[in-house]
Predict the 3D structure of the following.
Amino acid sequence: VTSSSQPGIDETLRELAPQALAALIRRYGDFDACEDAVQEALVAAAAQWPAEGMPGNPRGWLIAVATRRWIELHRNETARKRREETAAHSSGPATPEDDELALFLLCCHPALSPVSQVALTLRAVGGLSTAEIARAFLVPESTMGQRISRAKQAIRSSGAEFRMPPPPELGDRVAAVEHVLYLVFNEGYTATSGPALVRTDLTREAIHLTRQLHALMPDDTEVAGLLALMLLTDAPRAARTRADGSLVPLAEQDRRLWDGEAIAEGVRLVTGALRRVPLGPYQLQAAIAAVHDEARRAEDTDWRQILGLYQLLEKVAPGPIVTLNRIVAAAMVHGPRAGLEQLASVATEPALAGHHRTYAVRAHLLEMAGDRDEAAAEYRSAARRTRSIPEQRYLESRADQLEAPS
Amino acid sequence: MKYLLLIYHNPGTRQIWASMTDEQQGEGLAVYAALNADLAASEELIVAEALADAELTKQVTVRDDTTMTSDGPFAEAKEQLAGMYLVDCASEERAIEIAAMIPDATFGRIDVHPVMTYSGLEM
């Protein structure tokens, strides 16, 4: 949806997009054409509503316009036949909530690649246009258009249906949706220090969609954990970058700039989720973020608790970055020398050897230990190996500070 | 992760191409078309372009607000940039695998460059 000047219209369209789509699919069955029809209705609304005002029943307006478009798209007999066949499939009792969840699950169907799942979810559930998604992921619009049509083809040929999967499959299918939303958030989160390109705010979009998923499945603790993780990770946004776009490390951020409301909501969510087992990786990451966010000053951070949570996380969802973060926490509790020892014992593992974060962590621990020259050299090594321009600037500035005569 | 794959030719590779029959050249081009279709289907291809002969290359420099251009051919450059692929793939191993599938890898050379991003620290 192209941004319209009138406040409220964008939000309304985003909220209604999946509802209108679910209503159309329920009526006509074919996801592909229904999705195209709803996209066109959204474009029409974004063009008309700011000038003419929002209609009294915006949902009904969208469904009516999308239905007209659908009929125009299906003026031939074969399509009508297919409609009758698929309509038989999708009849049956369902609540609007079930419909919306089924839409999430269909867009993240295992027949699709993760990039396709991301693109289709943003379009069909998020109501974003192909152009906006392409801009957000820095790929040409034609490439994104192809991804979306291939994704729809894959759905068609896999025979995936618009309905709730049987209960034994539900867990894996919801995990796929969580992963897609996590990818969208991470893409937006890591891009916030980019140049002044027009980028759709993927962070906000991911939070919006996860909030929607959480409303549909309030008892799913990992969905709650994921929403908490996003809120708590996004809360320091205003303090995370300087005006010139350079990164500010957590310990040096002005915590008064943090979003207290988001922190309160995230803490509430994760506290509720942690009361129930099993503990999943999103809950644990959210709990770590909560401990960071609850410290009023960097030196008040409860590193002992963070270390314990990373040890749990390393068991539940091991990975090189988790290991490095656990070592940083260990250094904060037991001192930099202990951290350096632990780092030396894992640094030759294939996933960590040569990784720029391994050099950056060693540099950080050496700096804590007072080895300025060695720390500066390690920061330079990390800077040469990173592929992120803001991170490179940050690592080089650390090295410069250490080399400057004090 | 994005990788830029640069295809380099040398005088030898240009000779091999010139000595091919039309039919052989057609087969060669079909290999590229198939590779491009495969990479599009796997959603890894962002863009692929072949470059015109180096004779048409212009070198541009701006000094003291003055734009200067010089025309090719640049005889000193034995290796010439002949084409490029910009791909978005899961790992460096995969980028190298793609590079090895470009026909020029067997008679020229492909350089695999990781592309910098504006991404900050990950969660």
Notes: Chain B touches chain A at residues 1, 40-43, 45-47, 88, 114-123 (CB under 8 Å).
